[in-house]
Design brief:
There is one protein chain. The protein has 6 helices and 8 strands. It has 183 residues and is α+β, with helices and mostly antiparallel strands. The strands form 3 sheets. It has a 4-stranded antiparallel beta sheet. The chain has a two-stranded antiparallel ribbon with strand order 4-5. Strand 1 (13-20) and strand 2 (29-35) form a beta hairpin. Helix 4 crosses helix 6 (127-134). The longest helix is centred in the middle third of the chain and has 20 residues, at 97-116. It is elongated. The chain starts with a helix and ends in a 10-residue tail after the last strand.
């Protein structure tokens, strides 16, 4: 979830990334990013974790632009001058979505066990689910076995799908919460 929040620049997230621009000549500069609750971005460059030459070149690469404050702002002390940096951030793909999906399956299984007890635990129809949880590296259950949908709060918990007969199943609905949001 954290990787999704970072790559999506979600509010209330903090992360460290390596950035570069034309002036760094393929070297990188390390920066800490904080995305505030109103989606404002604060970037702090970390000199000690960066290539010193690339860091200095990055600092020198700032550009300044001017917009007439009479037309673009209601702030009385805005001079019209802004400073900016152009840079690129590489998205990292560290997580394995399949393993994340199996974690969601395990959460759902434990919620169902909490509600139904040992009857659920010994149900032979769930052997494949237990096997998938026990051996996450194997592909026992094919995708998708989870649904990303914003269900109403009344649906949270254990639900039984009975119609149509071909789709008879348990549907466990739960929210995942992080500092950046609710999923």
């Amino acid at each position: 979830m954290k990787e999704i929040e970072i790559n999506g620049f979600k509010a209330n997230t903090k992360f460290r990334k390596r950035i570069k621009n034309d002036s760094t000549k393929n070297e990188t500069v390390t920066a800490d990013f904080t995305i505030g609750k109103n989606n404002e971005i604060v970037m702090n460059l970390i000199k000690q974790d960066s290539n010193p030459v690339a860091y200095d070149n990055f600092i020198k690469s700032k550009s300044m632009s001017y917009s007439n404050p009479m037309f673009f702002t209601d702030e009385p002390f805005y001079s019209g001058w802004t400073t900016g940096y152009k840079f690129t951030i590489e998205k990292e793909q560290k997580s394995d979505e399949r393993l994340s999906s199996i974690c969601l399956l395990k959460i759902a299984y434990l919620i169902a066990y909490q509600k139904l007890g040992h009857i659920f635990l010994f149900n032979q129809n769930l052997d494949k689910v237990r096997e998938q949880i026990k051996f996450p590296e194997r592909e026992i259950i094919k995708n998708p076995f989870w649904i990303h949908f914003d269900f109403p709060d009344e649906c949270l918990g254990l639900n039984l799908i009975t119609i149509p007969k071909e789709l008879k199943c348990f549907l466990i609905i739960f929210d995942l919460e992080t500092k950046a949001g609710k999923y």
